Amino acid sequence: MTQPLVSVIIPVYQCRDTVGGALESVFAQSLPAEQVEVIAVDDGSTDGGGELLDELARAHDRLTVVHQPNSGGAGAPRNRGLELASGTFVFFLDADDRLGPEALERMTAMAERNGTDIVLGKQVGTGGRKAPKVFDRSVERTHVLDPGSDLFGRMSMAALQLFRRSLVERAGLRFTEGLVAHEDQLFTAGAYLNAGGVSVLADYDCYYWAAREDGSSATQGAGAPPADLYAIIGRAMRQVADHTEPGETRERLNRRYLRLEVFGRLDRLYLDSSPDDRKVTLTGCRELLEEWYTPAQRELAHPLHRVIGHCVLHDLEDELLEVLRFRRGGSRPRLHLEDGRAYLKYPFFRDAAVRIPDACFASPAPLVVLPALTRLAWEDGALLAGGRVVVRDVDEGSPTVRLLLEDGDGGRRAVECETVSAAPADEGVEASFTAAVGPEAADLPDGRWTLHIEVSLSGHVRTVPLVRPRDLPLPRAALAGTRLLRPVRARAGEPLALEAGASLTSADFGDVEVGWGPGRRVRVRADAPPVLGDGPAMSVQLHHADDGTTISAPLEAAPDDPSHLRADLSLAGARPGRWRARFAVDGAGEPVPVRLPAEGGGVLGPVTASVVPPRRVHVKMDRRTATVHVTAPMGSLARRTWRRLLPGGGTKPRP
């Protein structure tokens, strides 16, 4: 008989309603039938599941069914399955889960391609179950002992994975028997520590992991007794020590056990435990902390875990209960800032009677600063940027705020902000700010400058991007000296930017109107770019389309409307032809066309611009370029008359 490629082992206890679906997902695999061996071990089911397995075995010759008395957990039936398995690989499937159709083919191919001993196929939670956060990308080959690997801390210790059987036998791996939970801790961890290599298959849904009411496998009950649990965790951490030298790798691997099995279980379960279980739990946690809670672990632990750890190690049970109740209440602890340090104010912070060290409360996380931009406009010769900042979870002190302009090459300019006294807020301490980017911006080197807010409070400095809300209008460009400063529309979530030395465009002149001024001049009126400080001269030019001759008039403030500038252009001596209108700004680049709003258009005129020499003018207005057309009526009449006086009336005889 040909050796199967993979043996699928399924422990079954009280799973009559689901085991059929689990088995069907195996029978439907894309691998050839002869390459898949299925071993179902009935662990004393009383719901008819064992009889169903026998019935299915009669229909599927690949299914081997074993019956045994109830052992109290999934460990014994899995071990029995390992004794019978003959495949190159083994895969453990729970009786109320199922496999994706190509799961075994893809995982075995990945193991053979890379020579790895374990393939962790993508697990997908169903019914509200959360899958481990380790499937962001596929990894062809890695190892938990590799420097910097975070696989051990992110994966689940559930043995619902593909293992090379030679690894299992070589390392003598077996499941802990008689436990309703955590029976796979030592098996899975031992496999990863002894493996020659590990693969992560993240681009295919291999395993559909069902949620259970009690949060455990259907082959398990409500959980392992605390004494058994902490004995297993102690063995698991010593197993890590057996495979590592003292130092970063050992600390990194054992951190998962402290974080999840000590601090995490205390956080989640201790308050609801019986007095007897609390006593056993405290003893088990204290023993683990005394052996493995090194200074390096303390340094990297969350402040909540440090406080919990101190309470456990120093028999502060009442204080531990109060800290855990505070945590369960859902409130975030406030921050105390002092001399550049931050402390989370969990219960008993600087309580002289309890004397928990400040180091337990110290937070390495940076301040969370939440800026909100509410004002952005050119006013009083400056770009005014205003809003508010909240320093989250802080209820004391008053922040100082600066606006920072940063280019892509490390250049930085700071603009001091006017800050209104801070006020307490639900989220933290709040202050409003206003920054004015004025004429000094003329010295900014050309390029894009992003805007950030720098907040200083009690020795802490935090810089965050200043993002423009969608409903806040973006101002147009302004002139600083002879250079154009243009606010730039950023992508969602990106900081607002200011482009220095931007090119002039027609859109920089708004509300454009063309009409007749006094003395039959052409009047151009526009809302010109704002000017910071002493601005350059601006003008309107008429440019002859044929010979490049230019007629110019300054753009000056209108006495009756200081918000707009206007220019009056005389065409009394203009030569006939088309004259295109342009705006010009001294020193700010090339002139740009005078364009009218979308609702503009039509023809203005004609009028007599001059009698001697006779000139008639009309203006064509459209969205491309306002164009002045100049004609000489007497000249045209003379030319027509001359042609009539020529022989043949000025026309060539027809051939």
TrEMBL record:
This protein's record includes keyword Phosphoprotein: no
Domain Glycosyltransferase 2-like stretches: 7-133
Highest taxon of the lineage: Bacteria
Residues in TarS/TarP linker domain copies: 226-323
GO molecular function list: transferase activity
Keyword match Ubl conjugation: no
Swiss-Prot/TrEMBL keywords: Transferase
UniProt cross-references to Pfam families, sorted A to Z: Glycos_transf_2, TarS_linker
Protein name: Glycosyltransferase involved in cell wall biosynthesis
